[in-house]
Specification:
CATH architecture: Alpha-Beta Complex
Order of helices and strands: EHEHEHEEHEEHEHEHHHH
Number of domains: 1
CATH class: Alpha Beta
Shape: globular
CATH superfamily: Spore Coat Polysaccharide Biosynthesis Protein SpsA, Chain A
Number of helices: 10
Largest sheet: 9 strands, mixed
CATH topology: Spore Coat Polysaccharide Biosynthesis Protein SpsA, Chain A
Radius of gyration: 18 Å
Number of strands: 9
Structural class: alpha/beta
Helix content: 25-40%
Strand content: 15-25%
Length: 271
């Protein structure tokens, strides 16, 4: 049973010291402005500067629950605590949101309506990509569970800020905290292996911010190698006998070692 004054949707969001305060404000405001009412469970992952705290202070709302952590515990642990909070408080749906992205006002209503009439357990959506404050492209595709199950052998096809799921989806699996990076990819593979259905719906429901720092971060050797490690584990989880799919990790390595200006061009063209 839902608690008094509680909505059906719990949006999990976290912020830490490296997040941009302006982007964080816009992201949080986009949730407040949703057509479909939601509760927001915001976790502050470790010490943050005053400018982040000031943003939080602007949103003293009954549907915003803020949890401060004394030290940085990492995104997988943060997400698992969020899932536990949503379960303990009997929410019907869980949504994800990053501190530097933007949800269009029809996002939650569109995703809730879709899941109410669908056999899917978890869905993502398409995204609009913004580079240096300019929209450069939008993705445009639909993936049913069968196609997601194929694509996930090559790469993670789901934009994490677009994730929306039935609460019971996480009865069979939560985030593996051993994977400090690529934890979403691992979880989606685990859910699929347990029989859960994942789809990506056509509407563009989020705005995904990309900048030079984002590209440079993803080009770090440690992150690239971690992606290869995660890919190998995805294939193991899904018991894929064809390790040829690892060629896609090789392609990813090549792309991410290109100069930043070439990677920028790829992001603008990629669909």
């Amino acid at each position: 049973m839902l608690h008094k004054n509680q909505n059906e949707i719990c949006v999990l969001m976290s912020v830490y010291h490296k997040d941009n305060p302006n982007n964080f404000y816009i992201a949080l405001q986009s949730l407040i402005n949703q057509e479909e009412p939601c509760d927001i469970y915001l976790q502050v992952d470790g010490p943050v500067e005053k400018n982040i705290k000031d943003v939080i202070g602007k949103f003293e709302l009954k549907n915003l629950k803020v949890k401060f952590h004394d030290k940085n515990i990492g995104l997988p642990a943060i997400l698992n605590l969020g899932i536990k909070y949503a379960k303990d408080n009997s929410y019907k749906y869980i949504a994800r949101m990053d501190a530097d992205d933007f949800s269009f006002k029809n996002r939650l209503s569109t995703q809730k309506n879709y899941l109410e009439r669908s056999q899917a357990d978890l869905i993502g959506s398409n995204a609009e990509f913004v580079f240096k404050n300019q929209t450069v492209r939008s993705s445009n595709f639909f993936m049913d569970n069968s196609l997601v199950s194929q694509i996930i052998l090559k790469r993670n096809p789901i934009y994490h800020s677009s994730v929306f799921a039935k609460i019971e989806t996480f009865d069979s699996a939560i985030y593996n905290e051993k994977f400090v990076k690529a934890q979403d990819w691992i979880l989606w593979a685990t859910l699929i292996s347990s029989g859960k259905k994942i789809e990506i719906i056509e509407p563009v429901l989020i705005r995904y911010n990309i900048d030079e720092e984002y590209i440079k971060k993803r080009s770090r050797v440690s992150l690239i190698l971690y992606g290869v490690y995660a890919h190998w584990n995805v294939l193991k989880i899904l018991r894929s006998p064809n390790k040829f799919y690892m060629i896609y990790s090789l392609i990813n390595i090549i792309v991410k070692t290109l100069p930043v200006r070439f990677q920028e061009s790829i992001y603008k063209l990629k669909t």
